[in-house]
Design a protein that fits this description.
single chain, mainly alpha, Na+/H+ antiporter like fold, 17 helices, 78% helix, globular, transport
Length: 425
Amino acid sequence: MGFFSLLVVASMPVLQFLLIGSLGAFLASGDSQIFSASARRDINKIVFAVFTPSLIFASLAKTVTLQELISWWFMPFNIAITFFIGATLGWIVVKILRPPSHLEGLIVANCSAGNLGNLLLMIIPTLCTEDGSPFANQSTCSARGLSYVSMSMALGGIFIWTHTYGLMKRDCITYERLKNEELAKTITEENENASLEDQLGNYKESGEASNSKDVWVPPLAKSADESQEQAIMEPLLSSGKLRRNESFCKKVLETVHLLVKELLEPPTIAVMTGFIVGAIPWLKSLIIGRTAPLRVIQDSLAMLGDGTLPSTTLILGGNLTAGLKKSAVKPSVILAIVLVRYVALPISGIAIVKAANALGLLPQDPLFSYVLLTQFSIPSAVSIGVMAQLFGVGQEESSVIFLWIYLVAALALTVWSTVFMYILT
């Protein structure tokens, strides 16, 4: 198949994403307040707790077998490599451009953490249904693709809520420290000015008293300002000591807590349940198939899962409207993140996946290799914006970065998707 034909096929999922995302942006704009921020949050909760787990379970239980699970062992390593390369390049960007210290983690996170779930959920099924797709000649393309994406989503979530969460938490600590230092400096300057004024006042009063008669003046108690300064500075100093003395065991326990929390989230539970049902033949026969006694469960979950893609894309389009606000992020920082995500990472991905395929580490399925390659070329994870809102640092900067990253994604994903299919065919 020619390169131009593959380009047309690759552009269809991106065009669908742009159309539905643009509708979400319009509904969330000032002209139409149908899709407000609170409405997006409520729908996002339903997507997270109901639609996405239903889609994941329905696809995994139908297509996964124990042998296939064993053959997918390279995917965790592939995702770990994307995070490692992206984080390394992000660290280099931070050292060269020297952004504000409370935004360093945000920049590294955008370079390392990709949208390993929601965006792939739209790209893979659409690509399978296109007539000119190199994967469309197999009847199980869409179901297998959703299984790969479900695995990618589960693994990506673990990496994001440990590595990326740690980066954003560090930004929050830095931001709070800078605010505290600025507050302490302001209080010190105000008290110095106040003490000078008090000294001048006391000097005048003592001069007047000496002219009249000697008066004994008792020592003054601490002023209210000094007491207030001490009350503010003590918790700041003590918090700094606590942070310095934070034990290694506490950090380990916190990491384990985050992993357990991630494993108990609805999408992850759906992944594990889908794997179990798919890998055990007698369980699979109870739910999957036209003669299965509990087939109504699979049909109901598949129906709920159909709402995942349009809902997710509408929410993403609506959230990108927040990036129209002004922020302190420099254009050079945005350009650097774009180059890392859409130039350096995809080139690295081609070398890694081709080497793994040549060594016989991958299953003989071009769609699996395509998913691995696409993991290197997707835009930043939406969860980064959620964390920025959670910690209250870099929210406006995150929105601006997201806006440009996802606008460029329309072109970058089309080009790299075409290149990947050309390589694989």
